[in-house]
DNA sequence: CTATAACTCTCAA
DNA sequence: CTAACGTTGAGAGTTATAG
């Protein structure tokens, strides 16, 4: 068995460039929600030393000096481009695992007699021509190695023109290459683990690959043991073609500006819960627990800080937005304290079960009417989400996040398509 | 005491 | 111009609690 991992090159920036060629060859960054931090940067922006997750307001001046173009994130656009990308790539194998908005694995079992590098080049050309997006491709015997091969393709450490195939390399070529790569580049090795490994003299990918898996399991975790085996070509990670239902659904967001009063918080919490409940119904599940959290801005320690969350068990599992909103607001009332500048609120649906298999409420004869939610979901599907909503979500929604530099919905909104004069 | 629930930490994109 | 630092989810491991 072998795997390919296909990954978009600075995906969000590339999506923007497809529809705005003036961004080509310039330093461009895309910002997180609320125009907070850098979440994607073009090669030119990276060269200028812009770091991932850098708070935007701190680098405003630097950006102005160097002509860096910043854009708010336009998730509608990226999600739509992602769907197109995944559809095109899915044609290249009967097995596809969509891992994130810009990444997927393809199962290449039975493709061994192919020239896989040429196959990868074909994918690249087609995606470039059909969608205008640049991608890189890593090919190897396990998912962890395919991720690493993709990294090598991106950084031009090995392979040719954005395609890197470890299977085709000799053992000594791989050893040589792996000795030059830091362990932190490996999928599953984050900041903590990298530091722990370094203390034991394990610095490079090659060091880790040669280390004793059982010992590492004892000293770290079973996860690291699997990683080591995967690096040695032993597949430990399965293929997830159909993503399992979520076990928890979270909806949280920072506000456009601080919120002080309960009524505004109530609107936000109701809105977040409506979103979460819609996703719950989409996967055909019910939730038995609702959690609400609010907090001030932890980056301003000189201001009074407050952070609190509360979980509420429901007497019966439900997917009814109105019922879930009532529970969330009940929890919010209990954790709200006046006198603080709230920066963020969130809700979570927990203890999720499949619809139809749940325990009915012993103490209540009230039943949800599924027709109401079905009608609401259909109306919002046709006319846009939020068209029909609970009054608790509010009208003005002044707390909504800021996105001051957002590009148009080029592929999803007729009204946003620029006119040609 | 064990089994499970609840919570914390880490990682990822 | 102001003031200003993301979101979502999984899984492992640890601690608390119930019986």
Q: Describe it for me?
A:
The structure is a single chain. By secondary structure, the chain is an alpha+beta fold. The chain is built from 14 helices and 12 strands. The strands form 3 sheets. It has a 5-stranded mixed β-sheet with strand order 5-6-1-7-8. A 4-stranded antiparallel β-sheet has the order 9-12-10-11. Helix 6 links the parallel strand 7 (135-140) and strand 8. It is globular. The model has no long low-confidence stretch (mean pLDDT 91). The chain binds a DNA duplex (13 and 19 nucleotides) through residues 31-37, 39, 53-58, 60, 73, 99-103, 187-193, 221-223, 246-254, 257-258, 297-300, 311, 343-344, 346, 402.
Structural class: alpha+beta
Number of helices: 14
- Sheet with most strands: 5 strands, mixed
Looking across the biggest beta sheet, what order are the strands in? 5-6-1-7-8
The percentage of residues in β strands lies in 15-25%
| Oligomerization category of the chains in this entry | single chain
Model regions low in confidence, pLDDT < 50 over at least 5 residues: none
Number of strands: 12
- Fraction of residues in H or I helices: 25-40%
Order of helices and strands: EHEEHHEHEEHEHEHHHHHEHEEHEH
Q: Which word captures the global form?
A: globular
What does the average pLDDT come to? 91
- Taking the alpha carbons of the first and last residues, their distance comes to 54 Å
